[in-house]
Specification:
Shape: globular
Strand order of the largest sheet: 1-2-3-4
Helix content: under 10%
Structural class: mainly beta
Order of helices and strands: EEEEEEEEEEEEEEEE
Radius of gyration: 17 Å
Number of helices: 0
Strand content: 35-45%
């Protein structure tokens, strides 16, 4: 289980269920479960790798990654799994998506330019732009509660430990960084020999500098 998202209305937790780091045709499904526990409900039953769901702010829709058409691209569906529509299309991988609290943007990681970078796209498919590039495998973007910052994992600063010194602890995601939505204010948050990945931003987190 990976790639979870919590919706307050209706109150559900969505998650990906299946193999990690699998190809586009491997069966991975998006499921939901009530926060108090109970039976999980599958929202996707199609062949293809469906993962990394993220609810819209009103909880009525979710964006997710799917390999149902051959490549891993982004799709949007209603919270109950209906009305699936394609958001991105190309022979690359778009994944690890997060819907902004304002509802205006969707952040995601993509290797459409060769390396994994952080991109922004509006839910209607317009406004595509690269937020963070420059190499370094930039992944796992997550919006701050006010929508002004994105935290992400990256190798952009290299590694803090040689593999030979930590053979059982690889560092594929490097460290954590934050950046403003306009690309300014890039700041490194962590600097250690551990792998930092899949960050999430708590609702009570202070703004940088507070």
């Amino acid at each position: 289980m990976f790639g979870m998202s919590w919706s307050k209305a209706p109150e559900r937790i969505a998650f990906s269920h299946g193999a990690v780091f699998a190809g586009s045709g491997v069966s991975v499904n998006i499921m939901t479960v009530p926060p108090h526990g109970g039976d999980a409900t599958a929202l996707t039953a199609d062949a293809g790798n469906n993962g990394f769901p993220s609810y819209s702010p009103d909880g009525k829709q979710m964006v997710f990654r799917s390999g149902r058409d051959g490549a891993k691209n982004l799709y949007i569906m209603d919270h109950d799994g209906r009305n699936i529509r394609r958001l991105t299309q190309g022979d690359w991988t778009d994944t690890m998506c997060d819907w902004a609290p304002s509802g205006e943007w969707i952040a995601f990681a993509s290797d459409r330019d060769g390396n994994f970078d952080i991109w922004l796209l509006r839910p209607d498919g317009t406004g595509l732009r690269k937020l963070i590039g420059g190499g370094g495998r930039n992944t796992h973007p997550s919006f701050s509660p006010d929508g002004e910052w994105i935290v992400f994992a990256s190798q952009r600063a290299g590694f803090s430990a040689e593999t030979v010194s930590r053979p059982s602890q690889p560092q594929p995601y490097g460290d954590l960084f934050i950046v403003r939505l306009d690309g300014s204010g890039l700041l490194r948050l962590t600097h250690n020999a551990a792998e930092e990945g899949t960050p999430g931003w708590g609702a009570a987190s202070p703004r940088p500098g507070d």
